[in-house]
Design goal:
There is one protein chain. By secondary structure, the protein is an alpha/beta fold. It has 15 helices and 21 strands. Strands 15-16-17-14-13-18-19 form a 7-stranded mixed sheet, with helices on both faces. Strands 10-9-8-11-12-20 form a 6-stranded mixed sheet, with helices on both faces. Strands 1-5-4 form a 3-stranded mixed sheet, covered by helices on one side. It is globular and about 65 Å long. Bound molecules: NADPH dihydro-nicotinamide-adenine-dinucleotide phosphate. The site of NADPH dihydro-nicotinamide-adenine-dinucleotide phosphate has 32 residues, from α7 and α8.
């Protein structure tokens, strides 16, 4: 039984209550470890450690901060296999995916922000011949970073890297459902020589630990990625305290396929954008709109490929669809399969629980489900399912598809497949979403602004936006 510990003040320590939660392996459904069931007192200890570290870390030169972060990035690369295995075991995702995407992206996040601060500049505005205005940026102090379970180390580092690079000290809370790689990361920080208290990681339940980070008087900003409902609660707590807030929330993303697209590319990528990570990526395109002339051709080819996806042990290199993250989440996704049927949807394939043979027989596996025949405004097409369930809907005109695509409360990302550049421009302009991918999906450049509109969030991460979020700008006006 593996027991993980909090990382506070540079030490790996037990929660003050001495209580632990069970950590379940989604692939087998078995408990395999223990997680600190931390409380507000542990968060307070972490905030105090971060406060103590702030004066020195905020004054540490950019070159030195960068060097330490690059060392951590190198250690992630050196421990790729162990981290990929841990991520797969904690989350249920195919190890192949963790090895190719999650862990390399975690070191890329560290490297990106470690080097970005070496190239950052601030603005100056000359006001006629009267004065010069200089913008200076300062770190905020102690900041809180709260991340979800779907891309555990990937999203954890996506937050803490810009926070640390900017000179803040951090109290972070990974999801209690997938804490293992954050724990291994804390060991790498110790190995790299990150000064004590610069990063603190407190494990435990969201409503206890996460809430305590948000409502602590001495956390100056909260960067949160997770569900829209939790985001609302965090905003309700943090806004009256005038904390800076970055909220990356849920999505219900449209994937729009025009008849003039590159059919094979659209088909192959749509399969990924539907079911990668068992559909548990906030950017997955769960509503597929297909222009009527190719509707049947696309539907039949898509269903054929979806029904052939290999579901099974995430530790098997040939697995394409692993386990969902928990029994509770599987139940939630299954409830939507039922809702879709009640709403009149035709199930074209999947939607059944899969019993994998051998060691994984008690794991949380679901055959990817494809529906057609649902109204664009029904619950299945409006609510975030966050699992391997997609709907197919034909459309006739650009206006029709825009109305359907923009009809949800969400606006995180959208995908458009067409070979007509004018149309790609028009549709991209008119889609209500923070990100539009044309003829691709999840093709990321870390310099670009990342975030959603409507209930998908507030604020932008990535590039200079992230460094701006974690700093306060001050204007100094010097009269000539
Ligand atoms: P949750 O909102 O349930 O949890 C996210 C994090 O917040 C977890 O660490 C959780 O802890 C913590 N938390 C829960 N309650 C509180 C609280 N009251 N105060 C502070 N923190 C709290 O989301 P999930 O983990 O279920 O992640 C899935 C969601 O994340 C989906 O909606 C998905 O779309 C969204 N997401 C958005 C992304 C984006 O970039 N926009 C990217 C990835 C996911 P614990 O797990 O211990 O409860």
């Amino acid at each position: 039984m593996e027991r993980i510990l909090n990382y506070i003040g540079g030490e790996l320590i037990a929660p003050q209550s001495g209580k632990y939660l069970e950590n379940v392996e989604p692939a087998t459904g078995k408990v395999y470890g223990e997680i600190p069931d931390s409380e507000a007192a542990d968060v307070d200890l972490a905030v105090k450690a971060a406060q103590a570290a702030f004066p020195v870390w905020s004054k540490t030169s950019r070159a030195e901060r960068s060097k330490l972060m690059l060392k951590v990035a190198d250690l992630i690369d050196q421990n790729l296999e162990e981290l990929a295995m841990a991520e797969s075991k904690d989350n249920g995702k195919p190890i192949k995916l963790a090895r190719a995407v999650d862990i390399p992206r975690a070191s890329a996040n560290m490297r990106f922000f470690a080097t970005a601060i070496l190239h950052e500049s601030s603005e100056a505005h000359q006001t006629d011949d009267e004065a010069i205005n200089v913008t200076v940026k300062s770190p905020l102090g102690v900041v809180g970073c709260i991340s979800p379970w779907n891309l555990p180390l990937y999203l954890f580092t996506w937050k803490i890297a810009p926070a640390l690079a900017s000179g803040n000290t951090v109290v972070a809370k990974p999801s209690e459902i997938t804490p293992m790689t954050a724990y291994l990361f804390s060991k790498l920080c110790i190995e790299a020589g990150l000064p004590k208290g610069v990063l603190n990681i407190v494990h435990g339940l969201g409503p206890k630990v996460g809430q305590a980070v948000v409502e602590h008087n001495d956390t100056q900003a909260i960067s949160f990625t997770g569900g829209t409902k939790t985001g609302k609660q965090i905003a309700a707590t943090a806004a009256p305290m005038f904390k800076k807030l970055s909220l990356e929330l849920g999505g219900k993303n449209p994937n729009i396929i025009f008849a003039d697209c590159d059919f094979d590319k659209a088909l192959k990528t749509s399969l990924q954008s539907s079911f990668a990570n068992q559909g548990q990526i906030c950017l997955c395109g769960s509503r597929i709109f297909i222009e009527r002339p190719i509707y049947e051709q696309f539907r039949d080819a898509f269903v054929e490929k979806a029904s052939k996806l290999k579901i099974g042990s995430p530790y098997d290199d040939s697995t394409q669809v692993g386990a969902l993250v928990s029994a509770q989440h599987l139940e939630k996704v299954m409830s939507y399969v039922k809702i879709a049927q009640e709403e009149g949807g035709r199930l074209l394939c999947g939607g059944q629980i899969v019993e994998v043979e051998g060691e994984c027989s008690q794991g949380f596996y679901l055959q990817p489900a494809v529906f057609e025949g649902l109204a664009y405004d029904c619950r299945t097409n409006q609510e975030e399912i966050f699992g391997p369930v997609v709907t197919l809907t034909p459309f006739d005109t650009e206006d029709d598809v825009l109305e359907m695509a923009n009809s949800t409360d969400y606006g995180l990302s959208a995908t458009v497949w067409t070979s007509n550049l004018n149309r790609a421009n028009r549709i991209s302009r008119d889609l209500h979403s923070g990100i539009v991918w044309v003829n691709c999906w999840l093709f990321r450049d870390l310099r670009t602004p990342f975030g959603g509109v409507k209930n998908s969030g507030a604020g932008r991460e990535g590039g200079w936006d992230a460094l701006d979020f974690f700093t306060e700008k001050k204007n100094i006006c010097i009269k000539y």
